[in-house]
Specification:
Elements (H helix, E strand, L loop, with lengths): L1 E5 L14 E5 L2 E7 L3 E7 L5 E7 L8 H10 L7
Antiparallel strand pairs: 1-5, 2-3, 3-4, 4-5
Length: 81
Amino acid sequence: MVIGVDDTYGTRQMNPDVDRTPVTIGKRRAVRSLGDFSCSVLIDVGDRSHVLVQFAGTGEITDCPPALKLARLIEPELPDG
């Protein structure tokens, strides 16, 4: 599990070639992205920053329950954007 902060772009500025699904985490816009061995949830914190919650596994990941659960736990603690 990885948690990170990036103040260079929000979810609207993501590379359009990245496979992603819009989700809502608490009151915030977010996206879920599945990779071969990982799942990422990016939560907007303002227009130009996001918090990344990423779960990596050893096999194909087809859903994101661990990353989504952690994202929902930390969202109330994030500052208003």
